Each structure stands twice: as C-alpha cells, then as structure tokens.
C-alpha cells in the first residue's frame, strides 16, 4: 500500500495556526527513532496520532512536551519559535502531556499530585482548602468521587489514571497531549473524559490524542496522522475512517481478522466459585464456573469489582466468605502460593508494577515462579535459566533473548513474558486482567492468539477487560458485574454491546 498521496495532499497550515513541526527527527545512539515529521495542530481541534508500539508516537510527544530536544527540525507555537529545554518550559508555554506510564507520587494525596510543582499558596503557606476544592471539582467532572485527601497508593489503576488526567486538565494549557489516556478506563469514564475534551476544545484548547483503541478515534478526533517506523505514512483530514484502513496503515499489511476462531469448550468444569465475597467489600455473593477450554469474560465499568474478584481468586486479596473448587475439589487459598499450587495463575492488570521486574532479564522473569522446576536441587544455574526461558520464548513467540532486560521490550512482548512464566507451569486456570492494556493493534492480535491457544490446550481461561469489544470478541460466555454485584452471565450469542452495558449500568 502506498501512502505518498495521503501525505502529499495536505497543505501546510499557516505558522500562527497553533503548533507547527517541520522536519522533526530524533536519534538515540545512532538509532533513528523519528524522521522528517511535519505536523500541525490548529486551536480547538483534536489530532489523533496513531501507530504501533515503537512507531515513534511517544518520542514525538516527548519532544513537543520538552522531555528531550529533537536532533533536527524546528517547531513554532502560535507563530513564535518553540524549543523547550524541559517539561517546565512546555508547561509555561501552555503545552502539557499526560504520559502513557503514570508519573504519580504514591505517598502524596490526590490533590497534592494534581497540583504538584504549582501548589496554591496563601500567606506563605500551602492553601490546602483551595487545593482540595479545585482538585475535587475536576475529579468529579471525570467521575471519580473520592476524597482529594486520599493517598494515591490506595487507588486502583483506573482511578490513578483519572488523577493523572485531572492533573493535566488543571494546567490551564492551550495544547494537551493525551498519550493512551483511556487505557485504564471503562466506557463511562471514557465518555466523561471526552465530555471534558469537547468542553475545552470549545474554548480553543488543542489536543494531540494517542490511543490503541481505534474505535475512539471517530468519536474524538478531527484529523488523523499515522506513524510507522518513525515516519509519517498517512494523513487524513477526517477521522471517519474504517478501522481496517487505519490498522493496515499502522502495521503496513492487511489484518483480516483481529480475534481468532475458538473451539467449543469441553464439558468438564475446571473452576467453580460459589458465594465469594470480598473482605474489603469490593464484591459480594459471586458464583460462576468455567469449563476446560472455555474463555470466560468478565465485564463491567470501572469500580464494578472485576479486578478485586480475580485478585481474590488468585490469593492476592482476602475473601470474607465463599468457596473455590478446582477440578471438583475444594481448595483453601490464603495467598498467591496456595493459588499457584492449586493450578490458578494471574496475569495482573498493572504489567510494569505487578507483572515483571523491568531491570531483570527475560530469563530471570520467566524463571520467577518456576524455580522449583528450573532449580529442583535449590541451586540456580544460569544455563538452566537460559534453557528454560528459551523454550518459553519459542513457545510464545517473544521477540527477545533470555539475557535481554525486560525494560527494553515492547509492551506486547513484556506481556508475553508474564504469560510465558505461567504457561510454563501448565496451570489449570489462567486469569488475564486487562491483557492488552497499552499494547498496539498488531501485538494485540498476537496476544489474542495466545489466549485462544491457552483454551485450546484445555485450560479454563478468565479474561477481564475494560475494552468491551475485546471481551465480546474472545469469550464463550460473559459475566457482567455492577458495583460489586453479579448482574448476569450471557452466552456469546446474547452478549452484545447493548446487553452488556444495560447490565453493567443497572
């Protein structure tokens, strides 16, 4: 497919039109990450910036936000030369960035995080009343009804993402770069964010919007720019485009089917839970079963108790009541080790914080949780770790070597490392919480195939996702939660967007 006509057809915007980039490139250690980027953002518009992981989106955003300087090219902002040397310079100029990876300070309050570096002062002291009030106002607009004095470390990932968004929206910026802002949000929270974007764009605020959720683009964006391998390969003056067109431009090839075909599940019940209730009150009286070879989806808006439920089944959070049975035998799960011994494993929602050790090798990460197999004698040998990891790497198709640090893998390959660790144990129940969060469309298809392979191998698979299309596309059945209550279990034929959302919002 050729993109030259798409790129060449767009006329350059006048310099006073907001932000203008000309010939922007960036090189790290002789590796060219972005090259020859021309980009314009008018006041009051949303420009979607799309591309696979590694396409250069975050690098380009970081250049605009002053995180680092471009190797070549120039920028102007409202007709004046713009060359920030720090994020502070960009914020002072009126440009803010919401990072894909959250940058919150866990031991400070929500309000302190929202206003960190620019705390409201009165009489030489921090005006906490004003700070808390302004933070609470913005949080409520985003649908997060929690006290602004609450410590960030006590919040779930989705709530932390909303704090990150509130922080950016209070900058009084004239251009905001939103890098995967809805990755941790459900449908209701996403719509609240979009309502705020619509309000601000009406006031002349511009947005650069980066997302792997392509269904959002038509709703929120005015124009679309597509990056691949650090180069701008397509421009569109409208966001009303078929998803398959955007996918093909992003990956450079045709993607005929996103979700793999799955086989009917077996008859044997592998996992059965009855009347489960959370010690913290996040859910109550949850009952369901999962058969061998079945992919069982769990849907619901943020705060429904989905993550808390699977964490409790996996022994990470305590239960106040209920029973869990594996292969017809009741099991007592007092912690993660009990769950692993019973054949229950969990791929957590926060991959970087809970799933991998970023500064350890791929081999060490895969061996973690398998030391009884890697080193049955108690002595861990590098050769054993390498051989064990290499077998898992080949099985999962991980693009990385056993000795490579996980930090330098793409999000999709990091996720495969977590999955590979547990696949190596041949578990009976495989739970995946937000399996494709922050993963590009090409890598998503690969993860979906891995999920289908787990089911084909006879495992009972549970998938929790804020992406409703993902849950519906993968699952044989879908359980819907709302405010910690079980609203119903739908077969694939009955599990439509409308049916799920009616239950999720009941």
What would CATH call the homologous superfamily of the largest domain?
P-loop containing nucleotide triphosphate hydrolases
Which blocks of ≥5 consecutive residues have pLDDT under 50? 1-16
* Inertia-based shape: globular
Beta-strand proportion? 15-25%
Total number of helices = 19
Mean pLDDT: 87
Q: Going across the biggest sheet, name each strand in turn.
A: 6-9-10-3-11-12
Residue share in helix: 25-40%
Which second-level CATH architecture of the largest domain applies?
3-Layer(aba) Sandwich
CATH class of the largest domain, named Alpha Beta
Which structural class fits the helix and strand makeup? Answer: alpha/beta
- Domain count: 3
Please provide the count of β strands: 22
Terminal CA distance reads 46 Å
State the major sheet.
Answer: 6 strands, mixed
Radius of gyration, taken over Cα atoms and rounded to an integer in Å: 24 Å
For this structure, the CATH topology of the largest domain is Rossmann fold
Describe it.
It is a single chain. This protein has 506 residues and is of the alpha/beta class. The chain has 3 domains: 4-94 and 173-251, Rossmann fold, CATH 3.40.50.300; 103-171, no CATH class; 269-504, P-loop containing nucleotide triphosphate hydrolases (Rossmann fold). The chain has 19 helices and 22 strands. It is globular.
